[in-house]
Design a protein that fits this description.
Order of helices and strands: EEHHEEEEEEEHEHHHHHHHHHH
Shape: globular
Helix content: 40-55%
Number of domains: 2
Number of helices: 13
CATH class of the largest domain: Mainly Beta
Strand content: 15-25%
Distance between the termini: 13 Å
CATH superfamily of the largest domain: Regulatory protein AraC
Length: 291
């Protein structure tokens, strides 16, 4: 039994690939979709939220981040998340499909923006109090245009969206300068490796398989990963497998042994030992605590 539904952008106020875009005040979005967003779920779209009021936390792939005025969050498709608030929360929420972006910007990539470069990047940033009103102007304009019904509104929405992403990218790059970005000399190759990991992480293939797919030696792949993330290809692959393990522990009724076998661990004891080393609790304790 799956407990993490995947929400489609077409469940919200959108109409086809060209119009696969949504923006709203956060409080209104919460009112309309309360049953969905307060429970763990996934999306098939890219999401950005800017908070102007409220406190609480936002859990993304089992990591908790504080919600506060000036907090901005970014999510890739497929990430698991949910919110919990101490009271009233306000701000702006917007999301769109990759197809929407590519339709309007065929020569650009979403990974050009540092917060969408990699799922490994920090999914949030902080705006100072004096910056908040300035950064809120563009999502406010996006909402006004979205609700206007005017001709060419989606072309203007796309233009405003790019301006918003550029402003956020400049701020994000300053706050997270230590993280990899698209300017890194190995950026494109690392992205390709990350995409391969996303496709084959459950297959049990060794790192040599990924190096071969990239037409690299394992030594060169190791250099690429260490220079861009400080971690080896083995560590990156293992982190992705363990993320999937935690998701399946919550989403499915499979036994822990079955989950370990499905993810390429030959025996549960080894899987349990690796899990405990990473998270300082056993798989059984994690499943019980989270549920």
């Amino acid at each position: 039994m799956e407990t993490f539904p995947t929400l489609s952008i077409h469940q919200f106020d959108s109409d086809g690939i060209e119009h696969a875009f949504y923006v709203n005040r956060f409080s209104e979005h919460l009112h309309l979709h309360h049953a969905n967003i307060l429970h763990p779920h996934k999306h098939d779209f890219y999401l950005t939220v800017l908070f102007t009021e409220g406190t609480g936390f936002h859990e993304i792939d089992f990591r908790r981040y504080d919600v506060f005025p000036g907090a901005v969050f970014f999510l890739h498709p497929g990430q698991t998340h949910h919110w919990e608030f101490d009271g009233h929360a306000e701000g702006y929420i917007l999301f769109h499909s990759e197809a929407f972006f590519q339709l309007h910007f065929p020569r650009l990539r979403l990974s050009d923006y540092p917060f969408f470069f990699s799922r490994r990047n920090v999914p949030m940033m902080k705006l100072e109090k004096e910056e908040l009103s300035v950064f809120a102007e563009l999502p406010k304009a996006l909402l006004a245009e979205y609700q206007s019904g005017e001709q060419f509104r989606y072309r203007k929405i796309a233009a405003l969206l790019e301006c918003f992403y550029i402003d956020l990218s400049r701020k994000y790059a300053v706050q997270h300068a230590h993280l990899l970005g698209d300017e890194h000399r190995y950026a494109s190759r690392f992205l390709h490796f990350e995409q391969l990991v996303e496709t084959y992480y459950h297959s049990g293939n060794p790192i040599g398989f990924y190096a071969e797919q990239l037409h690299l030696t394992t030594r060169h792949l190791n250099r690429i990963c260490r220079e861009t993330t400080g971690k080896s290809p083995v560590e990156i692959l293992q982190e992705r497998i363990l993320l999937e393990a935690r998701r399946r522990m919550i989403e499915s009724e499979l036994s822990l042994n079955e989950i370990a076998l499905e993810l390429g661990y030959g025996e549960y004891a080894y899987f349990s030992r690796v899990f405990r080393q990473h998270f300082r609790e056993s798989p059984r304790d994690f499943r019980k605590r989270y549920r």
